[in-house]
Amino acid sequence: MAQNLNLEVNAVSYMDFNNPAGQTTIQGIRGVSDSENVYITASLLGENNIVQGLIYEGKLIGNGSNGKWHVVNFPSTASEIVTNTSCYGPNNGPDGSIQIVGSYKISTTTGGVPSGNLGFYYEGPLDGSGTWIRISPNNGNTNNVFVHSIMGGIAVGNYDVENDKNGYAFLYDIATKEYTEFKLPDSITNTLYGIWYNGEDSYTLAGGYSSHKLGKLSQAFLVDYNGKTKKISNLKSFSYQNETALSIITHFEGITGSKDNGYNMPADWITLNGDSNGASFVSVSRNSDGSFGEANWIDIEFPGSSITSANTAYKNNILGIYVIKDDTDTKVVSSFVAKVVRDK
């Protein structure tokens, strides 16, 4: 497919990318330090709807068969049996290790452990034999915790509170184990799905929020964050195709740095009347004063799919899942890589 946006010619090529063992949901990616390889984090759906964590290391070629997949799961204990593990964001750890954040479920709850999904942080070898830590924001008063991304020693994620429909966002400092609540000005709900480390104390965060001003509408955002002062700056909101009248929901699912001192984001959106949803590759550059410029939107739609969702980005690649119906009208979920080629 091709589109003309801002006098650029944008071509998108697609390929499936899955673990050969079964239904794969890709949820995160990061380049391996000093290598052409990437880390991809995902989940694998098995028998009886059991979900296991996945890590891929290899090149972003060959439909997922070029590298090596590792199955990793949060370890069970005598009192807590882990039933599901889902790996979200990967990152390069110290001394060649990998860092992963995500969520997991247990079949029993003891000692006041909340129900639903629990958050985790992992650091160690690719085989999962390293250190697993539960992440519990809000003093553990949560219904569901999802840790989405990690970079530069800080992880970001979200949680719910029982009988509270508002979404809450947080940052977690790996070294100090400190939690910081995140709430944009005048916001109702907040989500943090992506973090990019710019160096020193500077980070850029991505996600979505709803506000009193916009009512039920939800917008994506980028904002700079100072890890030392915990202050935010350069907040900018984004709506699909830069028009608030087109969508009721626009959300950035992650963030990666780009060559032009800017960022690339995977985005999902739902149109204003709610009858259409889709995914996009979004690029945003910095203005000379350090603020964020306008977004360039390139729609991502896997050929023949009924639903395409963008989950993560690496350089000029968007990774996510799509849904297609087979000959028996059964919905089949598969992961994909969409490579965007931009020629000015």
Structure, described:
- With 344 residues, the chain is an all-beta fold.
- It is 0% helix and 61% strand.
- It contains no helices and 26 strands.
- The protein has a five-stranded antiparallel β-sheet, with no helix packed on it. Strands 19, 20, 21, 22 and 23 form a five-stranded antiparallel β-sheet that branches.
- The relative contact order is 0.13.
Mean pLDDT: 92
Shape: globular
The portion of residues forming beta strands comes to over 45%
Low-pLDDT stretches: 1-7
End-to-end Cα distance, whole Å, is: 17 Å
Helix-strand blueprint:
Layout (H helix, E strand, L loop, with lengths): L1 E4 L2 E9 L6 E9 L6 E8 L5 E8 L9 E5 L9 E11 L5 E9 L11 E7 L6 E5 L8 E8 L2 E8 L2 E10 L5 E4 L4 E13 L2 E10 L6 E9 L5 E7 L8 E6 L3 E2 L5 E9 L5 E10 L5 E9 L6 E8 L2 E9 L5 E13 L1
Antiparallel strand pairs: 1-2, 2-26, 3-4, 4-5, 5-6, 7-8, 8-9, 9-10, 11-12, 12-13, 13-14, 15-16, 16-17, 17-18, 19-21, 20-21, 21-22, 22-23, 24-25, 25-26
Briefly characterize the structure:
By secondary structure, this protein is an all-beta fold.
Please describe the structure with a list of short key phrases separated by commas or semicolons.
344 residues; mainly beta; 5-stranded antiparallel beta sheet; 26 strands
